[in-house]
Amino acid sequence: MTETVCLPCGPILGSDIRIDTVLLQRIIDGPCPIYVEVRGRETAPALVLLLGLGMQLDEWPRPFLDKLARHFRVVCIENRDMGRSGRCGPDKNAQDAALGGHASQVAYSLFDMRDDVMRVTRELNLPRFAVVGFSMGGMIAQLVAAKAGDRLTAFAQICSSAGEAEAPIPAVTMKRFERVAKGFETDAEMVAHLADDLIWCAAPSPVSPSEAVDLATAMQKSGFTTGGYGRQLSAITSSGDRTEYLQRITAPSLVIGAEQDRCILPESSHRAHALIERAELKMFSHTGHSLEAYILDDLEMWLLGALGLSP
C-alpha cells in the first residue's frame, strides 16, 4: 500500500507543553553502556524508539512522547557514542581510516548497535515490543525487527534506508557529515556548523536560525561529540548489504519517507517498502529530513491501529 500525503509544513520542535511522563532513567550495562528513558505504564504495550546520526533523546518532540505514553510503555534509547550513553573511543576527531574505510578499522557496526537495543529489551523484561527508528535509527530498527522474530509487534521507519551496502546518502550530504566528523577548534564553531546543518537537512521543513542555534547549543551541552558522530557515521557506511534482513520482517510495518529528503534519497523508502512483506508506505511531500509533528501524529495513529488500541 502506497500513500502520498500532502500537508503544509509545520514546526520541527512541536509545542512547549510538557507533561512529566518519565518513570525511569537508567544506564544498561554491556560492551557499551546505553542510556534509556522509560515512560508510560509498565503493563502497556512496549514501544522502542531509536534516533539517528548524532542525535540525542531530547530531540524527540516532548508532546509526541507524552501522547505515546498514554497508550504505550515508551522506551527511548540513546545510541552508543552519544548523549549520556557510553563512548567507544576518543571524544574528538574521529576522521580517520574508519570513515568509508575498511570494515576492520571501524569501531562497531549497525549490528552492534542492534545488539545494544536487544540487550535493553532483555534488561527491561520486554517479552514483546514494537520498534520505530528515524534515519540511522531506522537502519538499526530494521535489524532489530529481523532478529526479534515473534517478539516484534510492529515496525516503522522514518526517512531511512533499504539496507543498501552503499548508504543512499547524496554526495553533498556526505561531505557535510564528514565535515562534522573532522571536529572543530571551538564549541562555538561546532554549534554554528550544527545549526547550519539542522536548517539544511530539514529543508523545506522550516527551522529558524534562532531555533537551530538553540537546538545545536543544547546538543553540545548534553553530550554531542564529533568522535561519537564519526564512529556512528562509520557504522552506517561499513555495515554491508542488509537487504535480506528487511525481507525477514513479518510484523505489521510502515515505511515513512519525505519526498524532499536531502539526507537519505527518497527512493530508498520505496525500495524498503518493496522488500518488507505487506508493508505500508507513506511519502510526505513538502517535507525534509525532520521529525515533523504531522508525521509523528500519523505514526501514532498507525501504531494504535496496528496494535489494535483505541485512540
UniProtKB/TrEMBL annotation:
Pfam families assigned to the protein according to its UniProt record, in alphabetical order: Abhydrolase_1
GO BP terms, alphabetized: glycerolipid catabolic process
Example GO molecular function: triacylglycerol lipase activity
InterPro entries in the cross-refs: AB_hydrolase, AB_hydrolase_1, AB_hydrolase_fold
Coiled coil feature spans: none
Annotated ranges, domain AB hydrolase-1: 45-290
UniProt keyword ATP-binding present: no
Keywords: Hydrolase
Name of this chain's protein: Putative alpha/beta hydrolase
